[in-house]
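User: I'm putting together a teaching handout on how sequence relates to shape, and I'd like one worked example. Could you take ATP-dependent RNA helicase DHH1 from [Candida] railenensis, show the sequence you're using, and then write out its predicted structure as tokens right after it?

Assistant: Happy to. First the sequence, then the structure tokens directly below it.
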Amino acid sequence: MSDEWKQTLNIPVKDSRPQTEDVLNTKGKTFEDFNLKRELLMGIFEAGFEKPSPIQEESIPMALAGRDILARAKNGTGKTASFVIPCLQQIKPKVNKIQALILVPTRELALQTSQVVRTLGKHLGIQCMVTTGGTQLRDDIMRLKDPVHVLVGTLGRVLDLATRRCADFSECPLFVMDEADKMLSREFKGIIEQILEFFPENRQSLLFSATFPLAVKSFMDQHLNKPYEINLMDELTLRGISQFYAFVEEKQKLHCLNTLFSKLQINQSIIFCNSTNRVELLAKKITELGYSCYYSHAKMPQQARNKVFHEFRQGKVRNLVCSDLLTRGIDIQAVNVVINFDFPKTAETYLHRIGRSGRFGHLGLAINLMSWNDRYNMYKIEQELGTEIKPIPQVIDRGLYVAENEDAVPRPFKIDELPKGNESQVKGYAYRGQPDQSEKPAPAQVPAYGQVQAPYPPQQHFQQVPPQQFQQAPPPQQFQAGPPGGYQAHPQYSQYQQQAPQEPAQPQQY
């Protein structure tokens, strides 16, 4: 009788994809074991959550007991719910004050986190507001005149609202930092400490991250009260992500990417570049090759960034080229391939990039396009992360990254209202819009989310192409940025090189 309320829930289709021990190695607890409010349990189950992951098992009971928490766990193992659920449990909906502040490093992550709060707390009557830079300050001030229980935001805007006395944290009992290593870097730590001055002394602090540099320990000693430390980082990289590299000259990279598109079964992919100019140029070239592609980076107007993020999450476009703007926290279950078009320089950046695939213990693929000058960075990253990046094989096993039942891939939380952004230019940068696909015939019907989308113009679905050896793809157009030269097809490029070239290649300078 006591479980009759479960029968009325609108529970989504069970995610039947295989998972790794990153999320399966639990102690067998259920969400009911945490003595949560029934309305909160309803939101948890209707969001598709079945049982707690290891980080949730460890952190939720301690947070509910009122302890400060310093938690380390891998990307994609359920850290967001680990702090959202205790916050929602402790908030009193009838008290019209801000009762939890959740700070995140990027605007996209703020949107995503606020939507998790709204989805899990939809039966609780809790009001959540998201506030970020790049949007109208006046709108945020007006919104704060209505009840707000949870404020999710980025540092600069939250400090601005607190300084103007628009956001009152004087009785706010919960202070949460996601991606704490980034938030406590040298550029942001001062802002954090200014924000904390508006909080009461007896606040509860919850800090979550995948990596914890010395800056975090210094902050912990100064601002946390006997924190409960959780470390689930026996290894740094997710076990479900297969990592490969291809040694290619700079001018071969676009050709290599074209070959990957034609041979891999990509559901959705994120492609990383190291600079803004290269992001836009590569997105344009991918579109010219006949594949749907958007781009996103920090110089874009906020409204455009929001639109790209929303449409990519909803599966309206298959490929997204971006800078490191989207490396942290972004959770899109349908992304099964991450490609480092430009190899990152640090282990931390590499870890967060490849963690965009293989979310919540599922399988994913990370492919790194390496030039001669990247070889030392790769060696250093392998040593720091204790992982191995293998040479790309001629045939990549579909079982490493393809879900047999694509219908089981969960849809993301819908973002119903996107904040309106300021249209002001950033340091003279003029936004030119996304790559123009108007001249290419669109598919008659956009495939359902979780299915492979047809390229433009329509071709066979990747699902129908049997795995074959990597072979020479049609030469793409020349990829130029600035000086002549740039990217072009390599006439003898029949398979990926697995050894470093004998003579150092001279990459084009941008």
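A couple of points you could highlight for students: Residues 439-510 have pLDDT under 50 and may be disordered. The longest strand covers residues 241-247.
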